[in-house]
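[step 3/7] fold_predict: job queued, chain A
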Amino acid sequence: MKKVLTLPDARLRQTSKPVEVFDSALKALVEDMQLSMEQGPGGVGIAAPQLGEMLRVVTVDCSLGLHPCKNKGRLLMVNPEITYQSGKALGREGCLSVPEWVATVSRSRKVSVRYQDLLGAYHEVSATGFEARVIQHELDHLDGVLFIDRVLSVHELVRRMS
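[step 4/7] structure written:
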């Protein structure tokens, strides 16, 4: 298990590179990611950059959380890309890399993502609600974006809620 990077570590702001080699090192990284996520307080997703590995790899497991999800169990996504998104929803978010902070963030209600698995085969998954939020949160990490970058001001929050 690797230590999860926290702010102000500059690596959290870097853009990750696509995975080009699907080998045992990638599998070991994914195992480290899973262990680190499970050890975190309420972690339901983690991205490779949070462990200092600047590769486009995320894992999401909403079965560990309190909210029901369409895709039961772990989703491992290599080189993920959002291919569709719709709707908007406000929700509370936190992050293993920004401990003890929680804020309201606007995200798409529904997303579809094209990604590769550990062998390089392509897949597509659709998600809604909490699961869609977690996927978007983790994919942001691949571009050096943290949830705190998407926090709504109090004025904007009031406007959207009225």
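[step 5/7] annotate
Strands lie at 45-47, 57-61, 74-86, 89-95, 98-107, 110-116, 122-128.
The mean pLDDT is 90.
exit 0
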